[in-house]
Amino acid sequence: MLCRQRDVFVDGCFLRLGSISVAHLYKLCNSTGYRNQRVVLTKTRPTKAIRIGVRKAPEPDGRPAFIRIDSLHHGDLDGIKGLHHINAVDCETQWEVVASVHTISSLHRLPVIKQMLEQFPFEILGFHADNVSKYISHPVLQMLDKLRIEFTRSRPRRSNDNGLAETKNGAVVRKAFGYEHIPQRRAGRFNTFCREYLNPFLNFHRPCLYATELADPKKPGRIKRVYRPRDAMTPLDKLASLSEAASFLRPEITFEDLHAQARALTDIQAVEELNAERAALFWRVPARTAWVALRNRPPTNPHTAHLASTRPQWTSPLRTPQGCAPPLVDASGFRGCPPLPGLDPTT
Fold first, then answer.
1. CATH number for the domain that contains residue 150
2. What's the domain range around 29?
3. What is the pTM of this model?
4. Cα dist. 151→19, 90, 120, 231 in Å?
């Protein structure tokens, strides 16, 4: 522009300015004299909008019922949207609840979050999420206010505030469902699988490591967290080991029911049942998505084939016995029961 003003319009005021380099112009703009005349700085004005959540880390203080929540997406493929997984983990006991949802919009997300909160054996006191619009919204705030749940958000430059949910995403959810595309119309079947098989296995049969805080001898005044093998236990055992643990449970849930449900299957039987149901679940997913799971499909074990008939026939608020779950119909019209083996995966 300076060159055009000098050459085209023959303006004498731009004879010297037209030959100045761009680097020298930036240097002049950063000078103190120029900035004092042209740059205007104002203080940040507080917004009048309603603040959603408090920016702080959860403070369980040895109590359960303070959860961290995060979500995962299975991507898009050829214009077909993928489903979302929502993962909620308790800070103190690592009690974990996984659910699947068609979309992350409020229409599908809020009912699933309510179902997830009901699957915890204790009343939720704290709800922590990242600074994303999926959870930082007025519908979520209204739901939590109605349930008297404290809503907290991750602090800026504090990546560990939601670190527990992030690590569980990779160590649990991605290992169970992989990274391949899963159409969102299958969300109903995947949600039933999470509620009936995955969540009970995670909380009753999968041990977790828990940190022990020790004084750091190299840095006086510092606390070092140590993960010892003898501290590994299931989330149910961790919950039962807390002081006054029974006072945190819901009125309709007792430790006797929880331990009876945990002892209904051994850990090996629970793993084999989980793998069989997961293979049957991916059998109805299109072959382009499920070929990895079907290639490693475990063979039928004659020693565990009778588990379906020997499962205890009693109702639990955390898990419904096989064959007694109400049918859950997703967008594709399929009900929430496991598919029969041998069906064409492309249908």
1. 3.30.420.10
2. 2-37
3. 0.70
4. 59, 14, 17, 30
